[in-house]
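ugh finaly. both done.
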Amino acid sequence: MSFDHEVSIACKVLPLLNNSFRESIIFSPTSILAGFSLLYIGANDETEKEIGDFVGKEKSNTKESVIERWSKILKQESNDESSKVKVSFGNGIFISSNISLLAEFEEIMKSKLNGNIESLDFTNIDSVLNKINSFVSKSTNNEINEATKNDEISSDNYCICVNTLHFIAPWDSKFEKLEMKMFFGTPSREVQMMKKTVIPRIGWNLSEGKNWVCLGIPFDGFKAWLYIVLPNQHYSLIKLIENINVHSFEEFTKKYDSHTPLKR
């Protein structure tokens, strides 16, 4: 499973958000892929095949290769203390005290995938809620404190799988000043925005298509990028999202000469 699989997951999820385009939504294809990979590792028979098809598992991949891939990612991120670009994953499985996991799966979770496994009384919803939200809060450096609510948990649940992804990094070129600007979202409102005079050789990446424009802003040392994609004037954002595919991501992130001045 590769970056292409993560992009493919994003393209599969975006159409499912049709009814939510009037809201601000953040989702992580990487986190979704990681969560489904956990299910795939623990599944068999038809369930294994269906999950494998969804996450785009190549026929040449075995469960062992999927395990090793995620294990390698987790070790790389936890060992790179010198980098200012920090990425951390959290894997949590919360199971009913009425059931148990296979010992082999538990061992893989703990030794390979940095997994947290807890047995809970699902009839005590407040306790389950507290355990899950505490895990998410700790895994995201206290950035997400209410990941789930009471009405999203049922006493009929037997297992809840949680994956977290936390990212933090300084910009390669800092935004020292903020100013209040109108943000035309839903609803429109004034918010603090970054104030920056775009200068030649700053290293940003601007790409344009027939109906869209994309600006790539690098984090420290150009080790990671934030890409902002917006429709051109008179083109619908909803229509742009509906037409996004794997090729779109290739166009959005295509690198251009960093010494070329950006349009203001």
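ok and the 2nd:
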Amino acid sequence: MTNKTPGRAIDPKTLAVQVGDYVRGYGRNNTEAFASLIAYRQWAVMAQRALDARAARIVSVFSNDELEAIARGDVSLSEVGREVLKEIEGGKA
């Protein structure tokens, strides 16, 4: 597991423990479905879909003009986001 979120360096082992805590709780509360959970082989694909859905929810708030500018490449949401992150992190005491 790797963390690609700018500004958040979370150790992959810590992330695995956090995921394990959730999965452990799921397994204890739903033992029949737990076998299916373990056998499922498309977790990386599913996680990417979840990230795509989150991104879609964020993008959905923009106006048509803003969306068209992003679609044309006139505005880079990644670049804007990096600038905002610098502002946020720079404002921390």
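summary for the 2nd one i guess: The helical segments are 12-29, 31-39, 43-59, 64-72, 77-90.
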